[in-house]
Amino acid sequence: MELDSRFLVYSEQYILSLEVEARLVADLATTSIHPAALDYLSKITATTAGASSLRIDLDTGPAKAIATETNAMMAAVAN
């Protein structure tokens, strides 16, 4: 009986702790990581556009990867 009660209490504390951490990670993703990724993506895009105007071809793969991963992160946070 007492063992069951302790298990329930510890399980509830663990679940609440996980919920708090999940909310914290989601908040961090939307308030810090996403804006920083967009800022970096903007800089990469501006650099690529400037180089393109000088007829210098740069690899756009990193910018596409950042955009893809950022979109995936925000989709995961939205769910």
What Rg is obtained from the alpha carbons, in whole angstroms? 21 Å
Global outline: rod-shaped
- Poorly predicted regions: none
Q: Work out the count of structural domains.
A: 1
Terminal Cα separation, in Å? 38 Å
Mean of all residue-level pLDDT scores: 94
Helix content: over 70%
- SSE topology string: HH
Distinct helical segment count = 2
Query: How many beta-strand elements?
Result: 0
Proportion of β residues?
under 5%
Biggest sheet, open or closed, and with what strands and sense? none
Class based on secondary structure composition and strand pairing: mainly alpha
What does this structure look like?
The protein contains two helices and no strands. Helix content is 89%, strand content 0%. The chain has one domain. By secondary structure, it is mainly alpha-helical. Helix 1 runs antiparallel to helix 2. The radius of gyration is 21 Å and the shape is rod-shaped.
Overview in brief:
The chain is mainly α. It has helices at 2-53, 61-78. The protein is 89% helix and 0% strand.
